[in-house]
């Protein structure tokens, strides 16, 4: 692995994270004279469904996206031993989850500045007919004051009509919308909107809106609606946006366009 990357001009560094079938390492690009992140996917190590269905989809999608709030793909390499290397932009500030764990709830103006960038990234994706389907704080990376969305491993290209109903459960339980957890046919873009609500809640409250330890109990909590710790003093406008994002009825949940027009995001 190291020899292969070295022969392609990359010096491998420390491990940044590990997924089920992949790991991400820091590297130095001799060609570009900059640090990069390299996602290493072992084609032989994963189940057939992942390799046949999800991996080709991820590779097709990451190649097609170019937005200032999405981690950029520089190069894709494949070695003879069945490993794929995605050379990507490195976000040196870690992720939103780490930031909150380290520093506690974010002040509302800071959360708004970051969330606005997530809205822009998802607006771009949905506009291009792509649903992310695994939005969570760990997939929102930080580069200074900039948020960069990453990990399109569960992403899906929607049909041209956008009238797509999926029954696939993917993503993380804590961030999954009620219809996704229940396994009913659902609109993946509306699932993204719900997950964005969980991300915003975690930014502001440094905790999850619903307890994911017990799924049936969690579904009950989701139907009752979200509540807020009073001591944090979250503004009425922000609470209104969170209630809309975390609307249990997906037909009443806003589209990403409607989210982008919300008064809380228009505030500076």
From TrEMBL:
<dbReference type="GO" id="GO:0030145">
    <property type="term" value="F:manganese ion binding"/>
</dbReference>
<keyword id="KW-0221">Differentiation</keyword>
<dbReference type="GO" id="GO:0005524">
    <property type="term" value="F:ATP binding"/>
</dbReference>
<dbReference type="InterPro" id="IPR017441">
    <property type="entry name" value="Protein_kinase_ATP_BS"/>
</dbReference>
<keyword id="KW-0067">ATP-binding</keyword>
<keyword id="KW-0723">Serine/threonine-protein kinase</keyword>
<keyword id="KW-0969">Cilium</keyword>
<keyword id="KW-0418">Kinase</keyword>
<keyword id="KW-0744">Spermatogenesis</keyword>
<dbReference type="GO" id="GO:0004674">
    <property type="term" value="F:protein serine/threonine kinase activity"/>
</dbReference>
<comment type="similarity">
    <text>Belongs to the protein kinase superfamily. CAMK Ser/Thr protein kinase family.</text>
</comment>
<protein>
    <recommendedName>
        <fullName>Testis-specific serine/threonine-protein kinase 3</fullName>
        <ecNumber>2.7.11.1</ecNumber>
    </recommendedName>
</protein>
<keyword id="KW-0808">Transferase</keyword>
<keyword id="KW-0547">Nucleotide-binding</keyword>
<keyword id="KW-0217">Developmental protein</keyword>
<keyword id="KW-0282">Flagellum</keyword>
<dbReference type="InterPro" id="IPR011009">
    <property type="entry name" value="Kinase-like_dom_sf"/>
</dbReference>
<keyword id="KW-0966">Cell projection</keyword>
<comment type="function">
    <text>Serine/threonine protein kinase required for spermatid development and male fertility.</text>
</comment>
<dbReference type="InterPro" id="IPR000719">
    <property type="entry name" value="Prot_kinase_dom"/>
</dbReference>
<dbReference type="GO" id="GO:0007286">
    <property type="term" value="P:spermatid development"/>
</dbReference>
<dbReference type="GO" id="GO:0036126">
    <property type="term" value="C:sperm flagellum"/>
</dbReference>
<dbReference type="Pfam" id="PF00069">
    <property type="entry name" value="Pkinase"/>
</dbReference>
<keyword id="KW-0479">Metal-binding</keyword>
<dbReference type="GO" id="GO:0000287">
    <property type="term" value="F:magnesium ion binding"/>
</dbReference>
<keyword id="KW-0597">Phosphoprotein</keyword>
<feature type="binding site">
    <location>
        <position position="39"/>
    </location>
    <ligand>
        <name>ATP</name>
    </ligand>
</feature>
<feature type="domain" description="Protein kinase">
    <location>
        <begin position="10"/>
        <end position="265"/>
    </location>
</feature>
<keyword id="KW-0460">Magnesium</keyword>
């Amino acid at each position: 692995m190291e020899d292969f990357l070295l022969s392609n001009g990359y010096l491998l560094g420390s491990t940044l994270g590990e997924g089920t079938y992949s790991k991400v390492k820091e590297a130095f690009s001799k060609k570009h004279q900059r640090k990069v992140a390299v996602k290493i996917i072992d084609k032989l190590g994963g189940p057939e469904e992942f390799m046949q269905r999800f991996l080709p989809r991820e590779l097709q999608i990451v190649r097609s996206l170019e937005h200032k709030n999405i981690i950029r793909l520089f190069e894709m390499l494949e070695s003879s031993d069945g490993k794929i290397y995605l050379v990507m932009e490195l976000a040196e500030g870690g992720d939103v989850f780490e930031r909150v764990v380290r520093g506690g709830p974010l002040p509302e103006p800071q959360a708004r500045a970051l969330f606005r960038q997530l809205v822009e990234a998802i607006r771009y994706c949905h506009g291009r007919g792509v649903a992310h389907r695994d939005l969570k704080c760990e997939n929102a990376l930080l580069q200074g004051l900039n948020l960069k969305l990453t990990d399109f491993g569960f992403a899906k290209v929607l049909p041209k009509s956008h009238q797509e109903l999926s029954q696939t459960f993917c993503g993380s339980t804590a961030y999954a919308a009620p219809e996704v957890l229940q396994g009913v046919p659902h609109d993946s873009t509306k699932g993204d909107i719900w997950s964005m609500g969980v991300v915003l809640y975690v930014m502001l409250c440094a905790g999850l809106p619903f307890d994911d330890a017990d799924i049936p109990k969690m579904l009950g909590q989701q139907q009752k609606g979200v509540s807020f710790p009073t001591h944090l003093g979250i503004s009425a406008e922000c609470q209104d946006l969170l209630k809309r994002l975390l609307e249990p009825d997906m037909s009443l949940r806003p589209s990403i366009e409607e989210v982008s027009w919300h008064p809380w995001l228009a505030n500076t």
